[in-house]
Amino acid sequence: MAAAQIDGVETALAEKLEGVSLDEVKRILYGRPYKSLEFSAEATKLAQDGDFQLAGYIVDAQKEQTRAPRLVRVAAIQNRIHRPTTDSVVEQRDAIHQRVAAMIEAAAAAGANVVGLQEAWTMPFAFCTRERLPWTEFAESVYTGPTTQFCPNLLDEEKDDVIWNTAVVISHTGRVIGRSRKNHIPRVGDFNESTYYMESTLGHPVFETKYGRIGINICYGRHHPQNWMMYALNGAEIIFNPSATVGALSEPLWGIEARNAAIANHVFTVGINRVGTEVFPNEFTSGNGQPAHKDFGHFYGSSYIAAPDGSRTPSLSRVREGVLVAELDLNLCRQCKDAWGFRMTNRLDMYAQKLTEVSNPDYRPDIRREQ
Ligand SMILES: NC(=O)NCCC(=O)O
């Protein structure tokens, strides 16, 4: 039987602490406190009727003399699957489309300008099974598939029948601006994704939108600091990290990696993880000597947004679906760049030369020993 899940760190802290102690613990863990966003009655009702969490924060910046604030409302949506994995592919996908449509509507009613969804959000995360069918049938064309007709981020089946893990960026005009693919494919635990799709050939594209420049670092790419860095060097101001990851593997890392990337690269980062436990029809093993099983473990949600000054929002729930909305002042990116200067001091030329040497298979690590 699956272990009981707590709702989250914030809920647990609020149950045990109060007053100044609670405020101080939150400040130490999350940085400066944010004001809450006031939601319209419509947004609140949509969340209540739909039984999903709606949380919102204001991440402001210092007022400047020559530049107006660049305010943008970003939403992160975490969802679970809505039909058993034994239902047909179309039934499963349609049920998620319907659910996420209601959540996007709530985000829009909360004033969101940009909405980000989780990795492979239209399907169960079936890559643990190593089975081809029916799971590969969830792959769709970026430009003509049923999900792009509906909205972004899916598996992308392209010419030559190569499958990629793709996020699609759709502008406020409703047109596809472009796509970004997963650069780093996991080979850890039950994440047998290399069985299903290939490493990106697109590099680190950044998308100029009406609401800021956006990059997408898909899931396992968050463990690679240079992946975040390349999106930032290409001009991203907000980097989304659509993910699917489980508690036993990565939960202690989750709050650190996207947040550190925000600090190191003077950008906002948006970590989005699916929620719930997904059970598959056939047993699979994890290659670790443990008994065969039918579920992947608990996807712990906990989506959050981190700011370049190191502060971050509280997480969404570990167990409920939710919409997180944050009003960001993008001027904070420039302010942190000016204050900390990581871009000025990062010595890229030195690392470029060294990385070229290290990427040679004959490279020998530069370790000095006592003679
Ligand atoms: N979806 C995915 O890449 N998961 C890998 C596990 C992790 O990075 O936490």
Report on this model:
The chain is 29% helix and 24% strand. The protein has 371 residues and is an alpha/beta fold. The protein has one domain (9-358): 4-Layer Sandwich (Nitrilase/N-carbamoyl-D-aminoacid amidohydrolase), CATH 3.60.110.10. The strands form 4 sheets. Strands 1-2-15-3-4 form a 5-stranded mixed β-sheet, with helices on both faces. Strand 10 (238-243), helix 7 and strand 11 form a beta-alpha-beta unit. The longest helix is centred in the first third of the chain and has 21 residues, at 89-109. The structure holds N-(aminocarbonyl)-beta-alanine. Residues 119, 186, 188, 191, 219-220, 244-245, 249-250 line the site of N-(aminocarbonyl)-beta-alanine. N-(aminocarbonyl)-beta-alanine binds at residues 119, 186, 188, 191, 219-220, 244-245, 249-250. It catalyses: 3-(carbamoylamino)-2-methylpropanoate + H2O + 2 H(+) = (R)-3-amino-2-methylpropanoate + NH4(+) + CO2; 3-(carbamoylamino)propanoate + H2O + 2 H(+) = beta-alanine + NH4(+) + CO2. Pathway: Amino-acid biosynthesis; beta-alanine biosynthesis. Belongs to the carbon-nitrogen hydrolase superfamily. BUP family. Keywords: Hydrolase. It is an enzyme of class 3 (hydrolase).
